[in-house]
Amino acid sequence: MILSVSRRTDIPAFYSEWFFKRVEEGFLYVRNPMNPKQISKVIISPEEIEFIVFWTKNPSPMLNKLEKLEGYNYYFQFTVNPYDKEIEPEVPKKNIIIKSFKELSRKIGKKRVIWRYDPILLNDKIDINYHKIYFEKIAKELSDYTEKCIISFIDMYSKTKKNCSEKNIRELTEKEKFRLAEHIKEIGEKYNIKIETCAEKIDLSKYGIEHTKCIDDELIGEILRKEISAQKDKSQREECRCIKSVDIGVYNSCPNKCIYCYANFSCELVDKNAKLHDINSPLLIGNVNGDEKITLRKEKPVVAGKRYIKQRLF
User: Fold this and answer.
1) Which terminal residue of the chain, N or C, has fewer Cβ atoms less than 10 Å from its own Cβ?
2) Taking a C-beta distance cutoff of 8 angstroms, is the pair 4, 246 a contact?
3) What does the pLDDT read at residue 308?
4) Per-residue pLDDT tens digits for 38-94
5) What is the pLDDT of residues 97-114, one digit of tens each?
6) What confidence score (pLDDT) does residue 305 get?
7) Strand 27-32 relative to strand 35-43: parallel, antiparallel, unpaired?
8) Cβ-based neighbour number of residue 274 at 10 Å
9) What burial class does residue 152 get, using C-beta atoms within 10 Å of its C-beta: 0-12 exposed, 13-18 middle, 19+ buried?
């Protein structure tokens, strides 16, 4: 099983103590976001979890506790964007984030720290030239600490349109995407950082930029030095090429409160859910009420030679 920690919220930044406690106890619960009466029990021992992909804008709370992950294999998707507090209200200052990026890379190796520059957006203050300038500034800082940068362009989901409209944020035109991609590729070559896209329809191959998988069987296989057999995650949108994983996050629970976020519907819901977080609960947000159906979650292994078992608890 591959664990995604997490597309839905920044567990390394805000809930790492809970996660490490779950590691100690060997299991956690995930409530079905479409049916809260259904809960999956996920065994998270090193024997069951073949790989973990962490997603974060700030792994600082984890940096001095990585030894607790001994026996697990993992890499980080680490977002470093050029935006200020108007767009990413609770993300620390860039010098702090870049320092954390470098420290994490020194600890686990630059192959396992992937820089995300996404979503790329425009408004009255942020234009193509702005991105050219700040992408290069960040690339220069991270050039010795990562091998790859994944970019994506903002999609205006209905749940984020209101927040984005307040800051006059808009999507890039196709022409603007091509213009920026050409510059980003040149900067990537200058600093020896491979540029790839995440869940994009647009074809940037003429600039040497290919589509990639954020949860990537090729990278996982390279790190494990084993053959990986995995299918595309059908629960993700069509353009997403990620292989199947189990995401343990909760929507409306990320205190970064980035205004472009598709996983937060409102800051009010985030604040409400954050108050329900209990470090001793198997659930990330809230506790078991007693009227739920709890099912043991098992997935077909991606590393050859492991058995596939499905079991219902009660």
Assistant:
1) C
2) yes
3) 39
4) 999 999 999 999 999 999 999 999 999 999 999 999 999 999 999 999 999 999 999
5) 999 999 999 999 999 999
6) 55
7) antiparallel
8) 16
9) middle
In sequence order, the 6+-apart residues with CB closer than 8 A to the CB of 254 are 8, 9, 10, 14, 261, 263, 264, 270
134-190 per-position pLDDT tens digit: 999 999 999 999 999 999 999 988 778 888 998 999 999 999 999 999 999 999 999
* Helix spans in the chain (H): 11-14, 16-25, 94-108, 128-142, 158-166, 174-190, 217-224, 267-276
User: Is the CB of residue 13 less than 8 Å from the CB of residue 60?
Assistant: yes
* DSSP-derived 3-state class of residue 194: strand
For 232, phi then psi, to 5°, come to -60, 145
| Contacts of residue 49, Cβ cutoff 8 Å, sequence gap at least 6 | 1, 2, 3, 43, 72
- CB-CB neighbours of 281 under 10 Å: 17
| CA separation for the pair 195, 57 (Å, rounded) | 19
Buried b (16+ CB within 10 A) or exposed e, 215-228: bbbebbbebeeeeb
